[in-house]
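Hi P.,

Sorry for the delay on this. The queue was packed all week, but I finally got your sequence through. Input first:
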Amino acid sequence: MNTAVRGGATGRGAAVWLLVFTVALGSLVVSEVADRAPSTNADRVRALAGDFACPVCQGQSLGESDVPIARTIRSTIRTMVDEGRTDAEVRIMLVERFGEDIDYTPTGRGFTGMVWVLPVLAAAAAAAGLGVAITRWRRGAHPEVDDQGTERPSTAKVVVAVAVVAVLAGVLVARAAGDRSVSDAITGDIRLSTRTLLAEAGMATPEEADELYTQVLELQPSNVEALAYRGWLRWRSADRAAALIDLDDAVAMDDAYADVRVFRASARHADGDHAGAAVDLVVLDGLDAPPIVGDLLAASRLRQRVAGELAATGELLAALELLDSGLEAKKRAGGGSDAALLAERGWLLAATRVPELVERGLENLDEAVAVGPTDPHALAYRAVVASTAASAAERAADVAADLEAFATLTDPPADLVAALVSLGLLDG
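Then the structure:
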């Protein structure tokens, strides 16, 4: 009787071990596929970018590379994530475009799905081995048949049973996970208002604004407004390297966003990249920019300053093309001509000292004064050029009128005043 009891107990003991292990394994599987804390869209973008290789780089992921194609792909990922696309859809798009070799993360299908199964199987085997060792330590080396001839579950059978459970669990993990990445979450609704954060950033201190723009980008990585304005903020805060990264990313994200073109043109000009600044301004001229953008350009005289630097380095044609692009944009917008741009064009032509170009420059300056009779640059430039041109005697009346009008201006630019004084055209 005792032997029979012992045999029954032995069988129940093995069953208990298997049950305990199955429960533990089931808990592990559930924990792996259960919802995690909601991740932001930025977290998903970073995870996806880290899961794919840069198509043209050696040993770098999309998240690590800074080459143009990597930046473009990251921008595409941001947009897709913010549109509500799943990680699986993003992966399918990237694999279709660049091939399976780009994907660092194996799927849960086919032969590659074994990478999901094998870790579970290995853990199961280790646990089974531990259970067997403990059983043998407690019982000693007993035969597989007890004193009454009742067969006990053999060690091999227990291991096989556990392995089957482990494989099935691994398959379930693979099927449930599919193309799931480490940052995926089944839920994760983002309820914060990016618009509210942007409004707060517009009234915050520079440090607070930077944090608010960053929060917006954590929630919505494709928010070009937050990226552009954070870049501009960082530029004004002298963090030029970070600023240019933000501005370049914003252009890659939305090349038709007017604000970032102005910001990057200004940054490029300050860095000595006048040709790059000119490119941004010419692109801007083809966009449907809000009036405030034109006002900003006029107040800063950015276009004129870029054109002047181009002309000074021998790129007169590029300078004139930049000015002409601005003039055409102004006409298309129904604003007529632009005195400031005409004045700059005339001044650059006259600066060549080539007689034919000087005369063409004077024509531009005449038009500038006619369009903007109180424009300080039009008045000052025409007075200087007309007083030194071959036709100076015939232009004496224009010079006198321009100087008189300039003297009545409330707050003329200091550099123009100094120039006129140094030439003896204006009393100090």
